[in-house]
Structures are given as C-alpha cells and as structure tokens.
Amino acid sequence: MKGLKKLFLGIMMLLMGAVAFGAEMDLSKVTLKDVNGMSYSFGKDGKPTYVKFWASWCPICLSGLEDIDNLSKEKKDFEVVTVVSPGLVGEKKTEDFKKWYKSLEYKNIKVLLDEKGELSKILNVRVYPTSVVVNKAGKAEKVLPGHLEKAEIKKLFSSKMMMNDKGMKDTMMKDNHMMNDGKMKDNMMKDDKMMNDKHMMKDDKMSMEKKHQCKTC
C-alpha cells in the first residue's frame, strides 16, 4: 500500500510539471541542517551553489547520486548541495532516512533536511529531481525540473553563464570598444566612398568637358 502511495505521489508530481520561475528568490535567510546535524546557509561562503532536490523513492534521483558525489569532490567555483524532505511527499522519516542514506556510503554529498518543506515551498518544487541555481548572494536564479548530467550542471556554472561583476564590466568595456571600432570602420568606409564618389564626379566632369571641347589641331 505504501509503495502504491509513493508511486501515485510521484506520478502526480510529474503530471503537475514545471512552473515558470520569474524573479530571483532570496534564500540567504534560509538555514537547514544536514544529515550530520551541521547548519547550512546559502550564499554564506560567497559562492554560487548547485542545489538538487531528490527523494529516496525516486529511481532517477538515485541513479544520479554517483555523479553528484563525484562532482562534490571536484575542484570547482561553485558549491554542491542536495535537499530531501523527510516525512513529506512519501519520504522516509528523518531518522529512518539518515540510517538508509548512511548505508549508501556516499562520502562527498551534502544532504540538507528540509523537514518542514520550507525550501521546497519557496521554490515551488513539484518534480523530483529538480535542480536550482543559486548565485553567490544566496538568490535562486533558475529552477530546472528533471535530471541533469554532470556536464550539464557544470555548464550552468561556466564563466559565460555565471559571470561576476568584474567579468560583466570587462565584457561591457570590450563591447564598447568593439562598437567604437565598428563605428570608426563604418566612418572610414563612408569617407572612402565619398572620396571615390567625388573622384568619379570629377572624372565624369572632365570627360564631359573633353567631349564638348573643339580640337585645335
């Protein structure tokens, strides 16, 4: 019976699908504890964060945990955390979940416990797995329902996707230089065209003058 209940809840979540995500959501004031009892706050270390919402009863979620474990131990410019909701949406109770998760023997994954469903509610998480991109200020920028491969996660935090203020300023300056160079080039081309037109007009005038001249010899 419990298995059918979990399956039904999973199907309902998938059918509900993704909800459009608009303005940034501030998560900097949200503090959760992980499976080891340590507190965690978003944006505290000044780094962007990849967040994965998952459940122990979700096969797709479980198949992606090894990737998350490997990604967590790699050197990178962003943090990786995962979130589960013990006692909610068909998930195991807190102590049962901790015991079960410990048996998986993943050494690098940070698992946060959203026991009241607070974070899931703020981000309107309706599908497992769901990925969230949180910037270095602790604000959620993207909510992406469905599974993501490790390469796809890294791409979300590439320099082009997650540009810091300095990078943005440098890019704007570069763009301005390119625009100025483009304008100079356009002006030079216009000047050349005008000069060519003048020469053509002068040549035409000389040709007309020659045509209307009388030969003296």
Automatic annotation (TrEMBL):
**What is the native source organism of this protein?**
Fusobacterium animalis 11_3_2
**Zinc keyword on record:** no
The top of its lineage is: Bacteria, Fusobacteriati, Fusobacteriota, Fusobacteriia, Fusobacteriales
Query: Per its UniProt record, what PANTHER family does this chain match?
Result: THIOL:DISULFIDE INTERCHANGE PROTEIN DSBE, THIOL:DISULFIDE INTERCHANGE PROTEIN TLPA
Q: Report domain Thioredoxin positions.
A: 12-162
Q: Please state the span of the N-terminal signal peptide per the UniProt entry.
A: 1-22
Any keyword Signal? yes
Q: Which GO terms describe its molecular function?
A: oxidoreductase activity
One family name in Pfam for this protein: Redoxin
Q: What is this protein called?
A: Thiol:disulfide interchange protein TlpA
InterPro entries per record? Redoxin, Thioredoxin-like_sf, Thioredoxin_domain, Thioredoxin_ResA/DsbE_sf
Write out the entry's keywords from A to Z: Signal
